[in-house]
Design goal:
seven-stranded parallel beta sheet; 255 residues; 8 helices
Length: 255
């Protein structure tokens, strides 16, 4: 077990004992940490990712029951993944894709369409496959974000997706009931993807957030994973968006 995984407290039953969790996009970052946390809470996990080598390493790390290497934007591969599952699931989490940022003058419509396919159509495809494959009372969980809620140059498309995502989740919660549907919305999370995007500016961003956030530290994948697993386990929660940003939306200097 990783040092970042929280062991079950003495005297408490594991929250996901006997359940099966599939994490689409589970080979790194938030997805991997959620798979790790779910395992610590007694679940069997199935993880997917695009990179077979990284996926194999992640599977060994968390003790995954099964893996599948494919791009979550590939509709045929996604359908095949769900069709080949050996049995029903209790929870599915989609943690894949990234928003598209660009000023209007440099706007690439092909890249924007790929982003929309990942951010809006992708969740709908997953939701279609979840119907009939997730047990009653189970859950479908998406990962969005809070960063584009504030209008800014270059964020027009990302803001539209960010604002629309909660409405999508609420509608799916009604259509898929009694399967529950929720959205986790992190602010900045210190992940390999963040490091890739920011490059040499990563440490400066960390320092800015440590100084500006009310919690005085940077959010990590384990923070988001703890919320994700809680949403899986708490059967009273559906159709809602849950922010996990350390108060970033309250701290103007953190933007």
């Amino acid at each position: 077990m990783s040092a970042t995984a929280s062991p079950v407290a003495a005297g408490r039953l594991p929250a996901l004992e006997g359940q099966t969790v599939a994490v689409i996009g589970g080979s790194s970052g938030i997805g991997l940490e959620t798979a790790r946390r779910a395992r610590a809470e007694g679940a069997e996990v199935v993880i997917t990712g695009r990179d077979p080598g990284r996926l194999e390493h992640a599977a060994q790390d968390v003790g995954a029951r099964a893996t599948a290497a494919f791009d979550a934007t590939d509709a045929a591969a996604l359908e095949r993944f769900f069709a080949e599952l050996p049995g029903p699931l209790d929870h599915v989490m989609l943690s894949a894709g990234r928003p598209y940022y660009a000023r209007l003058a440099e706007f690439d419509f092909d890249a924007a369409l790929r982003s929309l396919d990942q951010e809006l159509l992708g969740p709908l495809r997953v939701a279609q496959h979840v119907a009939g494959r997730v047990r009653e009372g189970g859950s479908l969980l998406f990962v969005g974000g809070t960063g584009a809620r504030h209008a800014s140059v270059g964020l027009a498309l990302a803001s539209a997706v960010t604002v629309g995502y909660p409405a999508l989740v609420a509608g799916l919660a009604l259509e898929l009931a009694p399967v529950r549907v929720n959205l986790v919305a992190p602010g900045f999370v210190d992940t390999p993807l963040s490091a890739q995007i920011l490059g040499d500016g990563l440490e400066a961003r960390r320092e800015q957030l440590r100084a500006a956030l009310p919690i005085r530290r940077v959010i990590g994948p384990a923070d988001v994973a703890a919320l994700a697993v809680h949403l899986m386990a708490n059967t009273a929660l559906t159709g809602a968006t849950y922010d996990v940003d350390g108060g970033q939306q309250l701290a103007v200097a953190a933007w």
